[in-house]
Amino acid sequence: MYTIGQVSEMFGLPVSTLRYYDKEGLFPNLKRTSGIRKFGDKELETIRVIECLKKSGLEIKDIKQFMVWCEEGSATYQKRRELFLRQKVHMEAELMRMNRVLDMIRYKCWYYEQAITDGNENRVRAMQPADMPVEIREAYENAHREDEYPQS
Amino acid sequence: MYTIGQVSEMFGLPVSTLRYYDKEGLFPNLKRTSGIRKFGDKELETIRVIECLKKSGLEIKDIKQFMVWCEEGSATYQKRRELFLRQKVHMEAELMRMNRVLDMIRYKCWYYEQAITDGNENRVRAMQPADMPVEIREAYENAHREDEYPQS
DNA sequence: GCTTGACCTAAAGTCAGGTTTAGGATATAT
DNA sequence: ATATATCCTAAACCTGACTTTAGGTCAAGC
User: On chain A, which terminus has fewer CB atoms closer than 10 Å, C or N?
Assistant: First the structure.
């Protein structure tokens, strides 16, 4: 059993954040001894799941919903599985989007490298994809693709 | 030359957002005819760069700083390149982090699939990594690795 | 010449996800 | 027993990135 301060240290999360999560109902049956929170292994795993779901784009209130489902036992396995399946699809799309962003950044790194050696942007600005080094051309084309625009 | 409404359509961004970006100085010399904004090709490319830098984790005020550098010409090539190099490092770390999150999600999908077929979590909760299918074990171990905790 | 739709501004409002503050209770070391 | 560190709550505050509102201008079609 750990105090809030120890858990804060372990996960690198501010104490205030852990208290905020608790207030939002993210630790459904966290124990206390004379008012002081006692975090057990179950709560540590809960924190890992919170971090995961948060990074996957879920809001606090949806994470709370998940924790409520966990309390409801086997009747909600299906709902919980569907939640993770939705987040899986979401994350896979997100990763592809991030790769495009990274390709734009790679192109821009190269662009400014060229501008620095030339002393101006004239040559590099006018350059067609066909004349770029193959790696850069691929990055450029991936980044500038105009397929369906995201409705995010 | 396009009006704000046309640009809004093209990029799927609300008109209010484009005006907000302009107010924040993200279009340093956007032209106007009798008060009405006229977006040219330069501004369209600027929007692409804004989207890219935003998705790479930069704040509006930092994007503005970048636009100011662009106005300053060749004297700031080095600064601009360094910005993109920093964002490249940042995004590469971000992508690794996202892959770990995705592995946690993959594990949880499998976990609930097992729980559903068993009717309870007993077996799957007690299962050691060594007894998991190899793909799931790899995902589980990647997701539960406790190397240096990020100071994000 | 008048209506309609798209444009404009400044300022206030919104929302998520915390953080800070103020005032107190509790536990540990000396 | 007393100092000091850590814990507690409720409520106010903060930040970034927009969005909404209120009130007005402008250009095109009828």
Answer: C
User: Rounded to the nearest 5°, which phi and psi values hold at B56?
Assistant: -85, 0
Best of A50, A106, A108 to disrupt the B interface (most B CBs within 10 Å) is A108
H-type alpha helices, B1-152: 4-11, 15-23, 41-55, 60-71, 77-118, 122-126, 134-144
- The 10s digit of each residue's pLDDT in B70-128 is 999 999 999 999 999 999 999 999 999 999 999 999 999 999 999 999 999 999 999 99
- Find the closest chain A residue to B87 by CA distance: A105
Chain D positions under 7 Å from a protein CB?
Answer: 6-10, 16-20, 25-27
**Other CB atoms within 10 A of residue B113 CB:** 16
Among B108, B77, B15, B29, smallest CA distance to A49 is for B108
Selection from A71, A65, A60 nearest residue A83 by Cα? A65
Burial class from Cβ neighbours inside 10 Å (0-12, 13-18, 19+) for residue A87 reads buried
| Domain boundaries, given as residue ranges, for chain A | 4-72, 89-143
* CATH class of the domain comprising B4-72: mainly alpha
pLDDT tens string B23-54:
999 999 999 998 999 999 999 999 999 999 99
